[in-house]
Design brief:
The longest helix is centred in the C-terminal third of the chain and has 15 residues, at 164-178. The protein has 7 helices and 11 strands. The chain is α+β, with helices and mostly antiparallel strands and 214 residues long. The strands form 2 sheets. Strands 6-7-8-9-10-5-11 form a 7-stranded mixed beta sheet, sandwiched between helices. It has a 4-stranded mixed beta sheet with strand order 1-2-4-3, with helices on one face. The two termini are 27 Å apart. Helix 3 (91-100) packs antiparallel against helix 4 (113-124). The radius of gyration is 17 Å and the shape is globular. It has 2 domains: 2-58, Leucyl/phenylalanyl-tRNA-protein transferase, N-terminal domain (Alpha-Beta Plaits, 2-Layer Sandwich); 61-213, Aminopeptidase.
Length: 214
Amino acid sequence: MIFLPDDIISFPPVEKANRVGLLAVGGNLSVETLLLAYKSGIFPWYSGDEPILWWSPDPRFVIFPDQLVVSKSMRKIILRNEFEVRMNTSFEKVISLCAKVKRKGQPGTWITDDMQSSYLEFHKKGFAICGEAWQNEKLVGGFYGIQMGKCFFGESMFSLIPNASKVAFLSYAEKFFQSGGKLIDCQVYTPHLESLGAEMISRELFCGIVKENC
C-alpha cells in the first residue's frame, strides 16, 4: 500500500493497485488533486473513520455510446414527462441527498462531509455536475459525477420515488453521447448499471480512453 503526502502532486502508476483496486492512502481532496486523479483513472472512496483511499480497479465498469440501454418501459416514463429533468441547479442538495438517502444493503455512506465540501468546490470550478428529477417542484431524484472532455465519471445517485434517478441519468446520458461523449465510468459493478448497458473493460483500455478524451 502506498501512502501519499498531504501536498500530493502525483499518483503512483495504477498498475501498483492491489487485487481489489486500492492504489494509495492519504493526500487531499483539492480540486487539483481530484483533476489529476480522474485524468489518471483513479477515484477516492472511503468511509468517515478512514483516511482518504484512492482506487483504480481492474476491470472497470463503463457504458459506451452504442451500449446504452433505455428499456421500453423506461422510455414510456420519460415520454410521459412524469419528472422535470434539470441540470446543475441544486448540486449541494443532490450530493447531500446522495449521502443521506438509505440504500438496501448499505449501512452507511462514503460521501463524508469533507467529500461533500470538496466536490461542491469541484462543481464551482465547472467539473462536478449533477442531474436532477423534479416532481411538483420537489427534488425527488438525481445523480452527480465529473464531466471532463468526452468522459463522464459517475459518483452516486438517489431516488425518493421509483425511477426518479434513472430518468435523470438516462436523460443526461443520451444527450451526453449525442453530443460526442465517448464513455461513462460506472467504476464498479452493480446489477442496476448493468441493466443500463454497462460492461467490464480492462483498466488499461479504460485509462487509454480517458487519456485520449479528457
